[in-house]
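Continuing the series of single-chain predictions for the mutant panel. This is the parent chain; the variants come on the following pages.
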Amino acid sequence: MTLFVNRLTQLDVSLWCPQRGLIGASWLVDAELDGELGEDGMLFDFGEVKPWIKSRLDVSIDHTLLVPTRAPAIEIAECGEGLGVRTALPYAMEIRAPRQAFTLLPWQEIVPQRLGDHLARELMKRPPPRVSDIRLRLRDETIDGAAYTYSHGLKRHTGNCQRIAHGHRSRLHIWQRGERCPSLEQEWASRLDDRYLVDTADILDGNEPELRHTLTSRYRAEQGRFHLRLPLERCIALPGPTTIEHIAAWLAQHIMKETGRTTRVQAFEGIDKGAIAEART
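Parent structure:
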């Protein structure tokens, strides 16, 4: 007998891609469980499947930076913050953070299906009674229109959002004069795609000539100290925390200033949640 649960939960992570660099991802998680029926006529109570799987994913991979340790030009070492990761391809990045902010995988690149298989094997190390096999499928949300990925960190967050490099894949809706604007949505999704969004208060000023074209973000949060250096061109600075509320308001203000029209923005933080902001002329 096979029990299945589609859209059981979602994962919001960032990952290092040998071709694109630091990118955000939001994956829906579908689950299948094989096993034998019990006397109650069930394999595993539906009310228990979701919390059992979700709780284990939440404390392991969710809101971490996925690092393929066998990708080219990656160095990993212990440091004062916990763990340090340096890259050179496709561009230079340095991140130092507590160990729980990373998921290290001995691969050349992160592939969602391979990751789903890996997570299923981890779950099967201590399976529920009567469950003989577990399969997980990670998939992107189907988005009809503009979408982009971004990474960020929220130092004031009490949960795992405080980790300096976690991210999302999000849709974007923009209205002007009461109508959706697909061309504006595509334009701004392209501007934001694969970018790191940073609070200006967390930017460390540096005078070294070799760092002229980089941006360094540093802060201390409940889980520890965090440090991230990226090429300046990969970053977008916001005048406040990079919460979805601030992102929506920032977008509405900038689009209104560029177009001269009252603008309403619906910005999503990953899948199925977000914030709406409006800027008026």
